[in-house]
Specification:
The chain is mostly beta strands and 733 residues long. Helix content is 4%, strand content 59%.
Length: 733
């Protein structure tokens, strides 16, 4: 194979292969904003109301807890937990089996990819629900203030949920109070205002809120002539509902989010001027009507009609005389019309039948242009890499229009054989038709729950989970213009929920009982589509144009793990929880196993919540996990006739190195004051309390060539976020 980008070197030399330090810039920005702004405090909570952070299966009735691994977080629990930027998505890594980096609100479930999680808001699917998409989706578009609770399943979920392989995040909006209330507040990322109440003798209700990020305003005041960074973003949420009949509730919801992101940065590295420019405009709009009907004591239904539209416009470039010259323009437009109908029929006290239909019409437009010159490219001789940018020049010009339909049908049956044994059997059928591309899947699922005792439940779950390629996810940026068959995951789960140290009054959930959950799982993936990854830096502004971009095309994948979680409501003031996870996630590529990017062998999460006598609520959380795997690089030399060495760079074998272990302690203290007819709440929070230097990636690589032509590569690794303090206030009246 022809060698690329070979550099003549003196017999002894050191060169730096630079990767722009976007990580350091993001950390600095977040830190500055945090110190000089006021974070938001969420809804008022009672001094005596300390709810369980995680509701395990043993806390549900037997009929309700057969399938899936459910973790429930109430609004009160969410408000107390440390979560940077008051972003509900940033709580997810505290749950067993969930991984995430510091810079993004995106998360990964049991070794899967970030797009394998179904996100629902009151039944409405949200596509790419993130702000600052140019910066890897730093925050979600969901205002925590409007969240009434979340339910999360990391596997084995019922046939009701389709087209996702790893998890379901089901978010329920806040039910407005009967009495009208208005609130204003600020977070270290944004300011917000909201109002809620009821009308027509409480037959109707309304809720409206708006947020606006002010990172751009703070950075503009800093007046850095070399760097222009203006990420402007905001969102609006509104919901109105009316009880049109004693048995029918009609609601209409609106969610709108926008981003206008600008980065224009010029900096010097070893006396070389480097420029980075990026501009992004993103809009997401969702409007949906939902009818909840209780036709009889045994029959109910949910009907949803919705429309959604997403537009994305990303353009800019990178200019480095020693590495890369890149220019890019990326425009997308995506719309979806949806009708969803769900029925629940309690056939008897021992049987529950669920039926549903979900149909969508989708339309997508892509307009993509990129040209890039590689000054110092890699040589491709690695057998585990299917495709890497080995040309000195790359040009892509893609214009595609695609439209089509998706339809899904499911049936799910729960049956209680006796007081100890409950089964759940479901079947789902899905079909996609995109401009002549047809694919369909049949997904059988089954679960069994057996009560060994009043305090102990044993669960088994198995099922097939398909994920079809979404119109929005066609990878035109990497040169992909054809749809592929759906990916498949098979879930195998054994779970045990029990109460330790059960004492008198167990039926009343007596204090001092310790709830234990043990989960053993295996997830087998097949029919996988190729995915594009950057070998070194996962947080590039233009990842598809980098020299280390590669196609990973596994034939299959396997994720196995064991999850242990404990929690205890010790008394009405003190609560603690702990979890430990062992897991392994691998891709099989050409007969050899390689660790997946977000594989973490060991993970530990600890949390305590204490309500002091003076009304202060104290929460501390500790997170630990093994270092994520990374890919390194190496160099080879060839002696030239003039006595100098010619260096060729190579990408190393995939994920054969590892980052250092991750450690972080977060702290949050809050207190609520009653002021006549209003309520004042404030909190103090610190992310990464001990300022731990956690490794995130390879920032730079240095090549040292000795007199014999032997190459040594020295890595300079970047870090996740430093210590970030924040202080906040909210006034409700």
């Amino acid at each position: 194979m022809r060698k690329k980008s070979m550099q003549p070197l003196m017999k002894t030399s050191i060169i730096s292969v630079k990767k722009p330090n976007k990580i350091a810039k993001f950390s600095l920005i977040i830190s500055l904003v945090a110190v000089i702004s006021l974070p938001q405090v969420n809804a008022q909570t009672s001094d005596n109301d300390i709810e369980r952070i995680s509701v395990s299966g043993s806390q549900y009735t037997l009929m309700e807890s057969v399938s899936g691994v459910n973790n429930y977080l109430s609004k009160e629990s969410i408000d107390r937990m440390p979560h940077m930027a008051d972003d509900v998505f940033r709580i997810m890594p505290s749950l067993p089996g969930v991984s995430a980096g510091d810079f993004s609100a995106n998360f990964f479930v049991r070794g899967g990819e970030s797009d394998e999680v179904l996100v629902l808001l009151d039944g409405m699917q949200l596509y790419r629900p993130f702000h600052m998409k140019s910066f890897n989706g730093a925050f979600s578009i969901i205002d925590t203030e409007n969240v009434g609770g979340i339910e999360f399943s990391s596997g084995g979920y019922s046939a009701q949920f389709g087209n996702k392989m790893s998890g379901v995040l089901d978010i329920t909006s806040l039910m407005p109070a009967e009495e009208s209330k208005t609130s204003i507040g600020a977070s270290f990322i944004n300011a917000r205002a909201g109002s809620q109440g009821s009308f027509d003798n409480d037959r109707g209700f309304w809720l409206v809120s708006a947020r606006r990020g002010y990172i751009d305003l703070i950075l503009a005041a800093m007046d850095d002539e070399a760097t222009k960074f203006e990420p402007t973003f905001g969102d609006v949420y509104a919901k109105v509902g009316y009880e049109i009949h004693d048995q029918h509730m009609l609601s209409m919801s609106l969610l709108y989010a926008y981003d206008d992101e600008i980065l224009d940065d010029t900096f010097m590295d070893n006396n070389i001027e480097i420029k980075e420019k990026i501009a992004g405009k993103y809009d997401s709009s969702y409007l949906w009507l939902k009818l909840n009907s209780q036709w009889s004591d045994t029959l109910s239904s949910d009907t949803l009609v919705s429309i959604g539209k997403i537009t994305e416009d990303r353009h800019g470039g990178e200019y480095d005389p020693l590495e890369i010259w890149l220019s890019l323009r990326d425009e997308k437009e995506f719309s979806v019309l949806q009708f969803k109908q769900d029925w629940q029929w309690r056939v008897s006290d021992d049987q529950l039948l669920q039926l549903g239909l979900n149909t969508k019409y989708l339309d997508a437009k892509y307009d993509y242009k990129m040209q890039v010159w590689y000054i110092n490219n890699y040589h491709d001789d690695n057998t585990n890499i299917d495709n890497i940018n080995t040309t000195d020049y790359l040009w892509r010009n893609t214009g595609i229009k695609s439209k089509g339909n998706e339809i899904g049908l499911y049936v799910n049956h729960k049956f209680r054989f006796n007081d100890k044994l409950v089964s759940e059997v479901g079947l789902r059928w899905d079909k996609q038709d995109y401009m002549g591309f047809d694919d369909e899947q049949m997904s059988p699922r089954a679960s069994l729950a057996y009560s060994l005792s009043p305090a102990t439940q044993l669960r088994f779950s198995w099922g097939h989970y398909y994920q079809a390629q979404d119109i929005l996810d066609l990878q035109v940026a990497d040169g992909v213009t054809n749809f592929v068959k759906a990916q498949k995951a098979e879930h195998r789960i054994i779970g045990l929920d029990t109460v330790l140290f059960q004492g008198e009054g167990y039926q009343d959930q007596a204090y001092k009982d310790i709830n234990l959950r043990v989960e053993v799982y295996q997830k087998l993936l097949s029919s996988l589509k190729g995915r594009y990854e950057n070998a070194f830096d996962r947080y590039e502004f233009f990842p598809e144009g980098q020299a280390d971009r590669q196609l990973i095309a596994p034939q299959s994948a396997e994720i196995t793990g064991v999850e242990l979680s404990l929690h205890q409501q010790f008394n009405d003031k003190f609560y603690w929880s702990a979890s430990y996870v062992w897991s392994e996630a691998t891709d099989e590529i050409d007969g050899k196993d390689y660790l997946r990017n977000w594989d973490q062998t060991h993970a530990v999460n600890l949390s305590i919540n204490y309500l002091m006598d003076n009304g202060w609520n104290i929460n501390a959380a500790y997170s630990y996990h093994s270092g994520w795997p990374i890919t390194g690089e190496y160099g080879t030399t060839e002696l030239q006739s003039d006595g100098n060495y010619q260096l060729t760079k190579h990408i190393g074998e995939r994920n054969q190195q590892a980052l250092k272990s991750y450690n972080r302690i977060d702290f949050r203290a809050s207190k609520t004051y009653q002021l006549n007819d209003s309520v004042l709440t404030w909190f103090f929070e610190v992310t990464n309390l001990l300022n731990t230097d956690n490794e995130c990636c390879i920032d730079q690589s240095f090549y040292d060539v000795n007199n014999n032509g032997v190459v040594t590569v020295v890595q300079e690794r970047g870090s996740w976020l430093p210590m970030i303090p924040s202080l906040g206030l909210k006034w409700q009246f």
